Amino acid sequence: MQRILLIGFGFMGRKHLDVFRVLPDSLVVGIVDLQGELPDGPEDIPVFRDFPGALRHLEFTAVDICLPTDLHREIALQAFAAGKHVFCEKPIALTRDAAAAMNRAARESGRQFMVGHCIRFWPEYQELKRLVDTCEHGRLVSLSLDRRTGRPNYSTGDWVNQPERCLGAALDLHIHDTDFLLHLLGQPEAVNSQGIQDQTGWSSIATRYTYGSRLVTASGAWNYPSKWGFQMRFSAVFERAALDYDSRSELTLTTENESPKKVQVPATDGYFNELAHFVTCLEQGGAVTISTGEQATLSLGVVLTEIESAKSGKLLSIN
Amino acid sequence: MQKIILVGFGFMGTMHAQVYSQLKKARVAAVVDTNRKVAAAAMAKLGVNAPLFGDLASALKAVEADAVDICLPTPRHAPAALEAIAAGKHIFCEKPLALTLADAERITSAAKRAKVFAQVGQCIRFWPEYVAFRDFVASGRAGALRSLSLQRRSGLPMHSVEGWLINPGLSGGAAIDLHIHDTDFIISLLGTPKAVSSSATIDANGPSHIFTSYTYKGIPVVAEGGWNYPLQWGFQMAFQAVFEGGAVEFDSGSGLFLTLGKKPKRPMPFKAPSVGASTTGAGNISSLGGYFNELQYFVNCLETNTPPAIATLAQASESLRVVLAEVASARSGKPVNL
């Protein structure tokens, strides 16, 4: 049984609590939130104002950090120092240096470090990866991914609209697709981006990635009107098929000789699957292999290079 | 009444014939097609009642006509256009105007010298949803345009006569034949970009799938066009536009939508002509809307003796210049300045 300390009880913390409530072998034993009390929070879980307070009074094996991005580094270092495993929300950090410090602390503590890149665990995206890996319909020829939403208005203290805490949609939203691309195809050779900077940071970015002869693009924007809703989608062309997904419809496969047909995927979501992976790895005493701190650091590096490319208007190579 | 010689009775020629049958001020005076047997059968099926010729010269000699509508494979546009212009006819030429800037220039200067009217079938400039979108941008109702992305995707077009569309030497591939619709529309909206940067899947059918970023000061613009989807995949054209205070999105599968300010998303009204669908069942498009609008506009210009100002030879040549730069960028891997 993994005993989890949930740190941060905003939008994502609440989602994670819902998952842990139904996930076997896990129990949320405490919540840390700056407010110290949660009038609308769960009645059966103690709430602490800070991490040292929780550490003094509770026994737990792992922490789940659902704080604003600029606070990830500090709390992760404290958790590793206390010998806890760490699950940290994405993006790992705002800078390469902060991410490197977190990975170093993980290595030195010998504890597991996973980052919440949930798209790696999203069933429709997992099916795309399966088709790419198996070459069931030939080689992947091209792939475009998009992620669009209204202005985020759900964050505590509106931190996601403060560029110095979040870096805008480019880092907070679009990194989902960048990270998935790294999961699928490894690091790109180069990136070429365009973006929009406004008072909330990089609110829109569109990138072309260089992956040999494959065509790969992704865009992420949250400057749509707040009532617009949310959409994530991709369109993948293989030598002998196309796989299309839109969060507003369904996953569809078209092969050369058949009409488009719906692809059945498990009715789970990435939030459940990622935490299940984390808990299972800890329970079995094994290492986290998907969405590790090191992988998340590479994704952060690519996104930061995309932002540099959008600033300079130049094609920039990765490493 | 404008009397039209329709040259080429393949997919697009049959589309145009269906439109002319619904236009009061135009009629097909003759059809020209090198394959008279196939053309005759198609004409009978559509009820097109006009003399059929195997070459344009014979039609020009035998029939009284005001204009020639060229629906031929792209490399044959220039010879047919020059022949029609030399005979003093106005021309409507299918898009892309040509495969080379030299051919485009030859057509343009000949039309200018002969003082005939000319229009190019860049039908997206007339497509009801795209027109509504362009009007919306001009109205400023949602403030400035912040970003724009456009997509056009389909299976390989197998409906062309003798497969000319899938022969890159004749069609230029998806980049020139398909994606030029969006390049042309972007230019109609924002002018010529400073530069283009493209990547493309290049296969036996030419540049089959192209992705381009266009450089406009302060507005990220990207467009994608590909016809290397599986045959049964269907057709999709779509765009997403974000404004300071709103968003407009279109998808040929779901429609045109507007989200303005704090109001919920709703269908966006647009004016569509009340014309029927194509009855041939070939090609990507079932609605005749954009084709009807462009030919109605052309015929009205002829009727009122006004030169067409939308989808002109100069505009079509500029779109060709930009799309050729996109292909060059995709081949070199470097941005191309315009």
Task: Pick out its properties.
heterodimer, A: 319 residues, alpha/beta, 9-stranded mixed sheet, 6-stranded parallel sheet, B: 338 residues, 11 helices, 15 strands
- Tally the beta strands of chain A: 15
User: What does the radius of gyration of chain B come to?
Assistant: 20 Å
User: How many strands, which pairing sense, and closed or not: the largest β-sheet of chain A?
Assistant: 9 strands, mixed
Identify the strand order in the major beta sheet of chain A: 14-13-12-11-7-10-9-8-15
First-residue to last-residue Cα separation of chain B: 42 Å
Q: Helicity level of chain B, as a percent range?
A: 25-40%
Count of helical stretches of chain B: 11
Overall 3D form of chain B: globular
Number of strands of chain B: 15
Largest sheet of chain B: 9 strands, mixed
Mean pLDDT over the full residue set of chain B: 93
Biggest interface reads:
A-B, 41 and 40 residues
Beta-strand portion of chain A reads 25-35%
Radius of gyration of chain A: 20 Å
Strand and helix order of chain A: EHEEHEHEHEHEHHHEEEEEEEHHE
Count of separate DSSP helical elements of chain A? 10
Average pLDDT figure of chain A: 95
